[in-house]
Structures are given as structure tokens and as C-alpha cells.
Write a structure and sequence with these properties.
By secondary structure, this protein is mainly β. It is 5% helix and 56% strand.
Length: 334
């Protein structure tokens, strides 16, 4: 019995040692402007990084790390969905409840679509159904858009505030419902909710990623917990500690690592030993405010937006104010 226990401990230590990334900061990509930020997205085919930033989207050349273009008039921008087979990107604009559609090569405006709920936040292109889904935070619903025609074709009542969403590329969409501590499963063809399940012990799930091969969902939650569930059954598989103020998570199917970006200024790295076994292998310092991220699968680098803040007094109250010209993208890799 003792021999078996020692073998088990050795296996765990072996996995942990071999899962180490030794991720470090490779580059700080400075971008002009003092607006806030939300999601970032990778266009791997064209090697471009799209960054939500105030009322515009910055485009960065991944190969050089240099700013490439600015997409204006995206008021209160939240997310960017890349559709390479259509040569289009779809951008959710929270302040005017619209979606901006642009050409991926020229970055020129194709059209603007008004959605059926207030404050479209997360946005997803589902290549299986060839549809765009916007998840409208204040509307507590989702708008479905035909990506071929850019026409609204449906609305889904989410029953709560939707956050990030992922597709299994086989007709199912999964969405975190932040204020109900749930994940919902949507049929991408019928626009119906097929299943709801809890992320308990997680609270206020925001970022979501998926291991499609093993039907595993990874929800980062407001109580410093990453919850892993079975996408088909809703069964709790595991929960692990992460840093505070996480708002995004990615899964790397090549290394079987999960990365949680935490606004406290850390990156939690969790290794998947198998579909049912996970362990935290690293907590890497980043920069305070770096709570969203994107993974470029061609170079295996992570990109995290953030900025520096000063504490100022206004009307007798302390609050944080962004330092001018401090907005950057942290590029991290081995």
C-alpha cells in the first residue's frame, strides 16, 4: 500500500514538473489612448491581435508587435469574434447595443447591426451554424445573427446576465450566467436552451473555455475559484484555486494547460493530467488590471491588456484614474 502511494505521489510530481511553462514577459506593446478595455481576440490566420479599447479597437501585428490599425466608432466595445471563412470580424458595442462588421484584410466597415438586447458583451462566431451570438448583459438575452446575411434571426431569453460563451463546433453553445452561478447549453440551430447546470462552489462565473475533445468546461469565478464541469452532463469534475478578479480563461489543447488571467496581477496555470485530474502548477506575476487574455496557438504566446492607475481625490472621495499613455498589451511566452 505504501509503495503504491509513493508511486502515485511520484506521478503527480512528474506531471507538475513537466507542466511548468516558465512563462515570462516577452514584450510590452504600448497602444495610444486612455480608454478602458475588455476582451482581446486573435486572428491566427492573419497573425493579428484585436484589442477592445474604449470606443475603438486596436489591431496589432503579432509577428512584429507593432500597432497596425484602429477601428473607430465602436462605442463601449466589449468583444471581437473572428470569422476567417467569411473574412470578417464582428465587434460588440455595449453603449449603442450594436455589432460592427469589418473586413479582416482591410479593416474597413462592412455594416452595423443593431441587436435585440441592451449592452451586447461577449460575442461568438459559431462555425457549425454560421451564426453570430451576442450575449446582452443588461438585456439578459442573446441575439442570433446570420453571419452570411448580417441579419438578426432570433433572440434567446437567458434568464440571467450572460457572460463569456464557447462553442463545441458540433451545434452546442455554452454560456456562463453570472448572477445565477450557472452554465447554460444552447442548441445553435433551434435557439433553445437545452440544459442549465450549477457551477457551485463557484460564484459569479465570467470567463469560460472548453476542452472540446473531453467535453470539459472551465469557468473562472469571482470567488477565486476555477470550476470544471462535464459539458454534456453538468457534473462537477473539479474546482481549483485561482487569483482574484479573474475575467478570462483559455485552454491550450497542445500543452493541456489552462490559463486564468487575474486582475490582482497574476496568471494561474493549471495542468490537465487527464479529463478528470487537474493541478495548479504555477502562479506567475503579471500586472495589476490584467484580467483578460487571448492565446495565439501558432506561437503559444498569451496577450493580456492592462494599464497603470493613480489614486486621486475628487469630491472628497478616493478613486483610481488611469495614468496617461500607460495602456499596454503584455505578451507572455516561454
Amino acid at each position: 500500500m505504501q509503495k503504491h502511494l509513493l508511486v502515485f505521489i511520484f506521478i503527480i510530481l512528474f506531471y507538475s514538473a513537466n507542466a511548468q511553462n516558465n512563462f515570462t514577459l516577452l514584450n510590452r506593446i504600448a497602444l495610444p489612448g486612455d480608454g478602458g478595455w475588455d476582451y482581446v481576440a486573435i486572428d491566427d490566420a492573419n497573425q493579428h491581435l484585436f484589442v477592445s479599447h474604449g470606443n475603438e479597437v486596436n489591431v496589432v501585428d503579432i509577428t512584429t508587435g507593432k500597432p497596425l490599425a484602429v477601428i473607430p466608432n465602436t462605442k463601449g466595445v466589449h468583444g471581437i469574434a473572428i470569422a476567417n471563412d467569411l473574412n470578417e470580424a464582428f465587434i460588440s458595442n455595449g453603449k449603442d447595443s450594436s455589432v460592427t462588421v469589418i473586413d479582416l484584410k482591410t479593416f474597413s466597415l462592412i455594416t452595423k447591426i443593431y441587436v435585440t438586447g441592451k449592452n451586447p458583451d461577449a460575442i461568438l462566431f459559431d462555425n457549425f451554424s454560421q451564426r453570430i451570438f451576442t450575449f446582452n448583459g443588461k438585456g439578459k438575452n442573446a441575439t442570433v445573427i446570420d453571419a452570411a446575411t448580417n441579419k438578426v434571426i432570433g433572440t434567446i431569453d437567458m434568464g440571467g446576465k450572460p457572460e463569456f460563451a464557447v462553442s463545441n463546433h458540433s451545434g452546442k453553445i455554452f454560456v456562463n450566467i453570472e448572477n445565477m452561478n450557472e452554465v447554460v447549453m444552447i442548441d445553435a440551430q433551434s435557439f433553445t436552451i437545452e440544459k442549465r447546470f450549477s457551477v457551485n462552489p463557484g460564484n459569479e462565473p465570467s470567463g469560460l473555455a472548453m476542452d472540446i475533445a473531453n467535453n470539459r468546461l472551465f469557468s473562472v469565478c469571482g470567488n477565486k475559484t476555477l470550476v470544471i464541469t462535464d459539458a454534456l452532463t453538468g457534473k462537477l469534475i473539479a474546482n481549483l484555486p485561482i487569483g482574484d478578479d479573474a475575467d478570462a480563461v483559455v485552454y491550450d489543447d497542445a500543452t493541456h494547460n489552462i490559463y486564468s488571467s487575474n486582475g490582482e496581477g497574476t496568471l494561474t496555470v493549471i495542468h490537465q493530467n487527464n479529463a478528470n485530474s487537474y493541478n495548479v502548477v504555477e502562479t506567475i506575476p503579471t500586472q495589476k488590471g490584467a484580467k483578460t487574455l487571448a492565446l495565439c496557438k501558432s506561437n503559444r504566446h498569451l496577450y493580456l491588456p492592462t494599464a497603470e492607475y493613480d489614486e486621486v481625490m475628487e469630491n472628497g472621495k478616493k478613486h483610481k484614474k488611469m495614468k496617461p499613455n500607460s495602456f499596454v498589451i503584455l505578451e507572455m511566452g516561454e
